[in-house]
Structure formats: structure tokens, C-alpha cells
């Protein structure tokens, strides 16, 4: 893995994020709030075309236990993702990161997929969309299976719009269950450059089509 300091010494901006993602790097905050830019080798991705929901998820999808929304409360999703996890009080999502990604959301380049029960946010995920690439960042759940359902609809939207690359950065047990694989960084950079040449739109219209289909 390669690590580099912040692109500049000023506050992290949406433009910094755009530059970083287009060049294969992404920021994470240290425990003291210091930002570093990462470019893992190998890089974890989730193939889009071959994704299929696990059999255990199909009954939950059929029951429609969760209401799915897009970008209804982007900051709340980030704040929940930043909350301490069981057995780990640290977080790489600092307030500075939250603010910059919220600006990116307002620009239409960062998106959240959210799961609700009785109008209460119970799970979701967020990421960045540039060209035909979706850069997955983080997910959370308060109710079991909620984040899995959110991820399922993310994948269906990416398929509908013809996205070519879903970047999930690091490999771990969580992303493996969604079909993540590792590829050399050089291969990732080639795939990234190719996918950035294509324009895709991440839109709530696709979600409505999926839910009503």
C-alpha cells in the first residue's frame, strides 16, 4: 500500500476528492485527524456484471421490509458510518471528511443509498460517482440485513446505468461477502482510466423503476 500526505495543507475540499479519485487515491483520517491519501496494491473491486443477491437475501427483498431512498439524508449516512464500531472506538471518517463529501454530494458526485423502517434510517451506504466508476466508501446498519438490501439496490442501479467499475479499496470479510476480488494496482489504474472516459448517471429514477418492477 502506498500512503501520501494531504494534497495540500488547507482544508480538504470537494475538488481534492475529485482529483484524488480520478488518480486512484482516496483519503482516510488518522486518530489525530491527520489526513492521508491511500492507493492500495492490490486493489479491491466488486465485479458489477456478475453480481447476484445471495439466496438468503431474496426473501427479505420479496417482503420489502425496508423502504429504500437515494440521497435523502447523505450526511446522516456518513455520520452513522463514522460512529464507533463494536470493539473499535476509532474512525477514519473525520468531521473534515464528512464536510468535504457532503459538498461533493451537493455537486451530484457523491451518493447514499438508504434503508428506512417507519421513516427511521436503519442502514445504508455512500460512495462517489465519477464517469462510469462508483467508488464505494462505507456502510452501516442498525437493523440486520438493511445494509445488504441497500447494497443490492446500489448494484442494480449500477447495472442499469452501465457502470464499469465498483471500487471497494481494501479487501476484508465484509466486502468479500459481496463478491469483492483483488486486482493489481496497475490493472486497477487501467480500468479506472477506461471507465472515466464513459459518462454514467446515478439517479433515483432507476430506483423507482426497480421498486415498481
UniProtKB/TrEMBL annotation:
Location (main, coarse): cytoplasm
Name of the protein described by the UniProt record: Leucyl/phenylalanyl-tRNA--protein transferase
Enzyme class: transferase
This protein's UniProt keywords: Acyltransferase, Cytoplasm, Transferase
Compartments, record wording: Cytoplasm
Origin organism lineage: Bacteria, Pseudomonadati, Bacteroidota, Cytophagia, Cytophagales
PANTHER family the UniProt entry points to: LEUCYL/PHENYLALANYL-TRNA--PROTEIN TRANSFERASE (PTHR30098), LEUCYL_PHENYLALANYL-TRNA--PROTEIN TRANSFERASE (PTHR30098:SF2)
Catalytic activity: L-phenylalanyl-tRNA(Phe) + an N-terminal L-alpha-aminoacyl-[protein] = an N-terminal L-phenylalanyl-L-alpha-aminoacyl-[protein] + tRNA(Phe); N-terminal L-arginyl-[protein] + L-leucyl-tRNA(Leu) = N-terminal L-leucyl-L-arginyl-[protein] + tRNA(Leu) + H(+); N-terminal L-lysyl-[protein] + L-leucyl-tRNA(Leu) = N-terminal L-leucyl-L-lysyl-[protein] + tRNA(Leu) + H(+)
One protein family per Pfam: Leu_Phe_trans
Family, as annotated: Belongs to the L/F-transferase family.
Role: Functions in the N-end rule pathway of protein degradation where it conjugates Leu, Phe and, less efficiently, Met from aminoacyl-tRNAs to the N-termini of proteins containing an N-terminal arginine or lysine.
Originating species: Arcicella rigui
Molecular function in Gene Ontology: leucyl-tRNA--protein transferase activity
EC number of this enzyme: 2.3.2.6
